[in-house]
Give the backbone structure.
Amino acid sequence: MSISKTRSVLYKTAKVLGDIDAVKKGKAGKRVKNRVLGKLTGKLLKKF
């Protein structure tokens, strides 16, 4: 397995663990909102 694939797997794992932690703390709604806003911002900035 290459370093980039390993890094990708680690980042995805961290993302899932962050989601689980947010659900446990009752902040899943805020996390979903921030993720959606981040994706929209990324798409808007990509156009510039």
